[in-house]
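Fig. S4 source data, part A: sequence.
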Amino acid sequence: QSKKGEQLLDQIGDLDALARPAELNVVSDPCKRNDAYNQSIWHRAVHVWVFDIEGGNILIQQRSDKKRHFGGRWNCSTGHIKMGEHALTTAMKSVKDDVGLKAFKENDFEYLFQANVAMDTGGGCVLRQVVDVYMLTVPNEDSYTEVPTLKSMTLAKGEVESVKYIDIEKLEEIWYGSQSAHPDFVIPTNDEYKQRFWYYIKRRYKKYHDQVLSPSTSP
């Protein structure tokens, strides 16, 4: 934990500048990971969602109870983007380290959107992150021709307590409920995050089942 706390992260000095890509003052001096938490400094992170498109389920993982922030709560794979590191690199490492899904290739990571997220971690601080959100769809032709089973996953010791697939309708219901009603889930506080996420998930699910599972109309 102490080594992680010393990791340097790119500090976001001006959130408004994110909408002005021509300017170069988005990232200011780097900050230590511990400081990003303790001082609620805006910094960059990734979320990686694994989507079982056949069954309409999403893989979620339960953080270890020993974790100070979001301990014991269910969420996707997440990762802090280290200073100078690319978001995709962090996303690939995150899902590999958290649940041992090593077969995913770079092209499998579909970038969905970016969102500013500020959340109470339950560990005495407000976490402020600019999050790049990725989706991994299974099964696919290149890396996982079948949906990975829970037994096939290797969980990060001290980081991930358990994993499970949850129905997309059930997860959506939880997200649009209250945090107090679902204290064991990490629920995005950003409404735009929720709207964009479910737009992509539902559109992709419908398109897949319309094209792949519908009876052929050919004579």
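Fig. S4 source data, part B ends here. The beta strands are 8-9, 31-32, 43-52, 57-63, 74-75, 77-80, 110-120, 126-138, 160-167.
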